[in-house]
Records
---
Amino acid sequence: MKLWGGRFTKEENQLVHHFNESLSFDQKFYGQDIEGSIAHVTMLAKQGIVSEEDRDAIVGGLKGILKDLKEGSLVFTGEHEDIHSFVEAVLIQRIGEAGKRLHTGRSRNDQVALDMKMYCRDQIQETDRLVKELLGEILKIMEENLDTYMPGFTHLQKAQPVTLAHHMGAYFEMFYRDRTRLRDIRRRMNTCPLGSGALAGTTYPLDREFTAGLLGFDGPALNSMDAVSDRDYVIEFLSALSITAMHLSRFSEEIIIWNSNEYGFVELDDAYSTGSSIMPQKKNPDIAELVRGKTGRVYGALMSMLTTMKGIPLAYDKDMQEDKELTFDAIDTVKGCLALFTGMLATMTFQKDVMEESAKKGFTNATDAADYLVNHGVPFRDAHGIVGQLVLYCIERNMALDDMSLEEFKAISPVFEEDVYEAISLKTCVEKRVTIGAPGQEAMRKVIGICRERMKE
Ligand code: ARG
């Protein structure tokens, strides 16, 4: 359909068409578009606005289009502006007059608002499923590594010993929060824009509750101007995706560090690493690096959408067509990252001995040595100073606190007795920490029990 008359040359006409069209990308939600149309015409017939005969013809025609698009026997052709006009044009071509009644009491504005909402709603569910799979992998590692000791870090410096189960448990919390965020968004967004018309509703006796119900919404959106121009849920979804991408990126960063020669905490499966074209010794963590690297474009989509929406007067404006490409890209990117990351994690080997050895070095038990003194009546500030001296003594001799003889301990503070070795052993340092949230096994078992329950959600 040509929108422009004789004032424009053919080339300009083409340029305008390409600039204006969205079929090249909104074809992604043809399924949602057709589902929405079927619900709409079902309601129109129920209300006596179209005949049952026309309804049957339209529904039959739409189902045929859906099937042919899925099978690939019907292809999208460039002359149509968007998915909505494409489906309607094919329908009219296939079933004739009746097809022209489909758009009664509807505008592309409420139609696109519906399609985008239903697409995002489906994708929220898909994303949630992938996050849940990742959580399942994390939980498995937690269950298997309650006594795999490793150093815990602050400032990327060895701080206190933890366990691999505890470290993984931190990621469980993060990704579990991501699931709750997705759930919240879905709850808030679940109102149906259909029936809002271009912006001011319609003069037909539509049953908006009925269409909302057919399409799985909690009810109709209550303001037609808002309904056609609300993209808050897109922004919220992009924000949730950005947070998930950020979590994946942090996790990737750790895996890259753990996989380095210097750390050697993990070994990546060959399938998830690649070699160098020049350096034969290399096995690079490309997948983790790519997941980390892709975070930027997800944030970009969020920033872009916030910026697009900031200047939009009510109600629908064409700027909003820009909601699609970057959102689709962000969704596909995060879903891809989640799937690959889960595979990488599931096939990764943890070098438990290396982790434990590393935890023994770096004075991760210094706090516990100070606590030992405190338990024997020394004020904490003094204890801190005494252990500082011990550490210095050990650094000069390239040894660990545990390697000192009792005489050496006593030379710095007479409070130390034979039981200090037990008190500062790696095992004690971890297992004494049993308040909920801490790495001790007793606490971790309780948390794992709760995590198992959360996996039922
Ligand atoms: N392709 C348009 C979009 O994505 C559909 C809505 C068009 N509405 C209109 N009044 N031009 O936003």
---
Amino acid sequence: MSTKYKIIEVIKGDITKLKIDAIVNAANNGLFGGGGVDGAIHRAGGKEIADECKIIRESRGGCKTGEAVITTGGNLEADYVIHTVGPVWDGERKGMETFLSNCYKNSLTLAVQNNIETIAFPCISTGIYGFPKDLAAEIAISTIIDFLKNNVSIKKIILVCFEDESFNIYKFLLSLYN
Ligand code: AR6
């Protein structure tokens, strides 16, 4: 793996526990908080996150699929939460890859704009939104690696898997870059 890609780490665990500059949330278009990782982040982060989401919802109508917005980390150890909205899998690849890739690209761009150096991602869209885990992992890793080609400021990217299946897929895919 080139030194650039050594900053990518895969772990299994709960993203809300990480002490890091920013964690990424797999949110919904209305930034309402929901189930899955979104629910866990809002529960652990508290009202401040929900309040900032409300301001974003009222000022710009929430967050479009593939886009990203930023709030405080509230009570979390992380300073910021970057909320991005993955695509809902509809059984066809067409267009879906671009939306999911944009989630990673736009979250990283927002991170750089906010001087964030360490960031953790969940496996966006692979829970309630039903995206195939292997395809989602391929998109996540290839987009991140592409982004890192021109990166000068991000120092660590942690890919957080909640289940063994995603963890094993990510570990295998990353090993291909070794
Ligand atoms: N830490 C890390 N990963 C987690 C955690 C956690 N604490 N909890 C779940 N995951 P999902 P989506 C994993 O469903 O598919 C919400 O209702 C989970 O195992 O959270 O993008 C939103 O409001 C899976 O691998 O997000 C939206 O409506 C991954 O996080 C909708 O769900 C993503 O699963 C978004 O669905």
---
Amino acid sequence: MRPPATALRRRAAALALTGLVALLAGACGKEGSPPVKGPKPGALPVYQVATDVQLPDSATWRRARSRGHLVVGAKEDQPYMGEKDPATGTYSGFDIEIARMMAASLGFDPKTVAFRTIASANRETALQNGQIDYYVGTYTINALRKKQVGFAGPYYVAGQSLLIRADEKGIDGPQDLAGKRVCSAAGSTPLQRIQREYPKAHAVAYDTYSICVDNLLSLQVDAVTTDDTILMGYAAKAPKELKVVGKPFSTEPYGIGVPRGDNALRFALDDAVATHEKNGDWTKAYDATLGLSGVPAPRPPAIDRYPAS
Ligand code: GLU
């Protein structure tokens, strides 16, 4: 007879495969038919490109102008928020739409935006060394990060939550994590919160949340923790295997990261967020992306136009 550990590993491998297949199926769909979940191209707003933009005080904007297009940092494995289609290389999701509407307001055709995938732990460096012009990817505004980068917005407020296997019993919130293995992304605020406020949980860090989800499906960890926006996307792609539990236990205001000190760019983006909230683009973009999770569009948060720094 096979020792139980091997049997368990086999079951784990089979489960992981099921999960991955389910995730992929959600991303691709049948040829000629829209994806099961995910933004329907027709429903996405078309953003009016501003024609008379001049931002001479923004070094970032001037550099993008002479380059001819914007380079924007994003996530590629967060369904509904920032996801890259492996077949076409196209990015989609609410964050991606925010990035595109910002581009239009800065005078760039959103179709020309070059997206670069940047993991949570590398965002500040990418902005500091000029790898990207701005960053839109579930990026929480906080005091510590404000010492390294600037933030326009917020354009949305998420909350930390938990993703577990659908058949898991006994984890209903962070208070149940003592002795459990909990996965999150390196350099993220949810990882820090678990380590700081729930020290009895065994925190495990990887570069991305999709690696955490693979580890959850293969029984290597007991839970994945990050923003509800991200976790809802994974649960929707593998509803038989995964579920989000409990109430959000933090406040994560999402900002558009800019190089620190480029106040001209930051204020222009604050204005742009306000414009697109007012003209209905924000809600249309939400409905076509994150809204597919079933949560109706909330009222966008107040913009925090903090003084030049
Ligand atoms: N919003 C959190 C953060 O900025 C978690 C999501 C992420 O890692 O992008 O750290």
